[in-house]
Design a protein that fits this description.
The protein has 178 residues and is an all-alpha fold. The chain has 2 domains: 47 residues; 116 residues, no CATH class. The chain contains 10 helices and no strands. Helix 5 runs parallel beside helix 7, helix 6 runs antiparallel to helix 7 and helix 8 packs antiparallel against helix 9. It is globular and about 60 Å long. It is found in: Cell membrane.
Length: 178
Amino acid sequence: MKKTLKRYRVFGLILIVNLILLLIKPSLGIASLKGTEDSLKELLAIMPPVFLLMGLLDVWIEKDTMIKLMGEGSGLRGMLIAFLLGSFAAGPVYLSFPFVAVLMKKGSKFFNVLIFIGAWSATKIPISLFEASVMGWRFMLTRYMIDIPAIILIAFITDKTISQQQRESIYKHAESVN
């Protein structure tokens, strides 16, 4: 029971805040509830396909294959695969974290996981195509020329500043995620 309450504490807190707003200032409370409902609908629409893809990744790609493609010693190939996986993604960045857990369980190198998160955050191809149609190809390409080195630099700095003990803790936590 305690574990369940702890797991859903954020949802409970949001519900309590919405109810308090509803009592104190009904118009703001209704707007807040509507925003919460919209966010929940978006989440529920996106999560099933994400979990399906995550499950397929987990089942179809053997750990040895993932280690060979994205693990220690994968070099530029692993970085490129991580970048492409993140760039072809769809959805908000919080949806990348279940994928990250699977990548880590399968033996992906920490640096490549960081590249994946960075690419998911900044270089999604569907959004980039929309951006190019609105802002122009020159703008999009200029942004990529800034973002890609920045993603690599941030991943490198993060990879080098995380201690081995912290890294092991992160991987251990990823293993425990269902």
